[in-house]
Write a structure and sequence with these properties.
Helices cover 17% and strands 19% of the residues. By secondary structure, it is α/β, with parallel strands linked by helices.
Length: 507
């Protein structure tokens, strides 16, 4: 028996060892190349708030969203993003970056979001942002930027939102936007800087969708009449960038920091500004009214032949040949825009963007399209039916006139020839005179009911000598509507009978 127990023990010992090794094989292992103290979850890599002074050496290649914010990074090595071919978002905010350098983002061709906010950047060089052709959002606010290279944003053709607020910029070139194209740009935040010189014609030439997203508040703008009228017009049009921050638009009245006045609250500063100075700055948008279901064609008229023409729809879709994604809008070979079947979704502002070597600035044209539902057409007037109906009604009226009894006493002779019609004779003037005289001479002793509404009667008396028989108004007084016999005529120079010979006139 002891031998069997010993044998069983020896046989179970390898199994226990194998089982323990197997259990260790199923334990979860650490993610591949995940930096120390960082969090790796699928395609997300977060190393935020760890006090890092340098980027970790080994980064997982599967990372699509890299968060290195709230650290102490002071520099970035060129080519450090080469292993991250799937990177779409890079967050570097709240660090201590002073400069970027050439080749820092050369391997980030698929990057769409770059957050460099709340750092210590002082300038942007020409090649600092090179290689970010797919970038859509660039956050550079809350830095110390005082200088931007003329082509700092060159190559960022897909950029739609640029945030440069809370910096130290004293000027900004709106003519070429430092190499930034205006085809996709929707938001340009330049608020809370030191902008003291604003080229008003360049502002007026910007596309409508960019004006709606151009933030210039909290800057020491000059109290220029043309700038005032331009911003006032944007405010009246309801552009959100101006209307939402109207109380924060300020200007220097005497070029002294202490002489700041608010644009839209101190109109006395601009009392002597003539509105004629603002005429011609902006080309007014063309108002078009189209019925739903009709066709529409818009032409992009420019001062010189344009090499490239693109359109922006009310839904902020860039329209180039052949047209929109849903196929409802077509861009023709000559650059015009055609809609074969106008629908409510086509209502809004269409903006044409034209560029060419002979054009001093990329010219824009705006068309404000209003879509109306077709009015229902009235039914055709059937003249034949109405003529027949009119004849039938006329015939019925004639028969009623010929055969209907005119008096209640003749109802018995309705089916035979009626001989009891008695047409009243016209009373003679003498009878009228005697009847009215008797009415006027009756004393008002008979009780009567008062009428609900007081009426007045005007007595007409014959003209005296020299009036050639014309009547003259006499005295008017209240009378009883249901008992006119109670009237009493005031005494006059002529008799009551002669006065009443002309009768009563109700008023």
């Amino acid at each position: 028996m002891a031998w069997l127990v010993l044998l069983g023990t020896l046989l179970c010992m390898p199994r226990v060892g194998v089982g323990s090794l197997g259990s260790e094989g199923f334990l979860p292992s650490a993610p591949h190349n995940c930096p120390y103290r960082c969090v790796c979850a699928a395609d997300l890599l977060s190393c935020a708030g760890l006090g890092l002074q340098d980027v970790p050496a080994a980064l997982p290649a599967a990372a699509a969203d890299l968060d290195l914010s709230h650290n102490a990074l002071q520099r970035l090595r060129p080519g450090w993003l080469a292993p991250l071919s799937r990177l779409r978002a890079l967050r570097l905010g709240h660090n201590e970056l002073v400069v970027l350098g050439h080749g820092v983002f050369t391997n980030a061709s698929g990057l769409q979001l770059l957050d460099l906010s709340s750092n210590a950047l002082r300038a942007l060089g020409r090649h600092d942002l090179e290689g970010l052709g797919a970038l859509e959002r660039l956050l550079l606010f809350n830095n110390r930027l005082a200088h931007l290279d003329e082509h700092a944003f060159h190559g960022l053709g897909a950029l739609s939102r640029l945030y440069l607020g809370c910096n130290e910029l004293s000027s900004f070139s709106f003519d070429h936007l430092h190499g930034l194209g205006t085809t996709h740009l929707r938001t340009l935040d330049l608020s809370s800087n030191r902008l003291g010189r604003i080229p008003v014609p360049d502002l007026a030439a910007l596309p409508a969708f960019l004006k709606n997203g151009l933030y210039l508040h909290n800057n020491p703008l000059p109290c220029d009449c043309r700038l005032y009228h331009l911003l006032q017009r944007w405010h009246q049009r309801g552009l959100s960038a101006v209307s939402d921050f109207a109380g924060e638009y300020m200007c220097l009245a005497f070029k002294v920091p202490t002489s700041r006045v608010r644009f839209f609250e101190h109109s006395r500063v601009f009392e002597n500004c003539s509105a004629a100075l603002a005429q011609g700055l902006e080309q007014p948008e063309v108002q078009l009214h189209v019925q739903m279901g009709r066709s529409l064609r818009l032409h992009c008229n420019t001062s010189a032949p344009a090499v490239r023409i693109a359109w922006v729809s009310p839904q902020h879709e860039l329209l180039v040949a052949p047209g929109s994604r849903d196929g409802s809008i077509a861009v023709l070979a000559d650059g015009s825009l055609a809609i074969s079947n106008v629908q409510p979704q086509h209502e809004g502002v269409f903006v044409c963007l034209a560029a060419g070597p002979r054009l001093h600035h990329n010219q824009t044209h705006e068309y404000n399209v209003s879509v109306h539902f077709p009015h229902p057409e009235p039914e055709a007037f059937n003249t034949g039916f109405t003529t027949l109906l009119g004849c039938a009604v006329g015939l019925v009226l004639v028969l009623l006139y010929l055969f209907a009894p005119p008096c209640p006493g003749c109802r018995r002779c309705y089916r035979r020839t009626c001989h009891c019609r008695r047409w009243p004779r016209a009373p003679s003037p003498l009878q009228e005179l005697s009847a009215q005289s008797s009415v006027l001479s009756t004393p008002p002793d008979v009780p009567s009911r008062k009428a609900s509404v007081h009426k007045h009667v005007v007595f007409l008396e014959p003209g005296r000598r020299g009036l050639n028989g014309r009547v003259q108004l006499a005295v008017a007084e209240d009378f009883d509507l249901y008992n006119p016999v109670g009237l009493r005529l005031k005494a006059g120079s002529e008799s009551a009978s002669s006065t009443g010979s002309e009768g009563l006139v109700m008023t």
